[in-house]
Amino acid sequence: AFYPTLVAHLSSTTFGIPIVALVYVTGIAACAYHLANGLHAFAVTWDLAKTPRSQRIAGTAASVIGVLLFALGANTTLYFATGSRLFVPATLDAPRR
Length: 97
Description:
The protein is mainly α.
């Protein structure tokens, strides 16, 4: 009964705004940022990225990981809340016959 309950909570609205889904997306954004920031700090602190150039590369790589993680989480939340997806073309989202 977890899936129907989750869908019901995420798709419920208050004054037309899906408050629970927005809270989920905000939490996902915070977690993704925290992970990306921690990965970059880990690389710099443990001298895996010693030079300024390698620190920029590590920062970029950590940012990409954070953005991808956020996109995956936001896509999943949107799917549970509305049944649609962010990054899938409509032709791929259609049911197969």
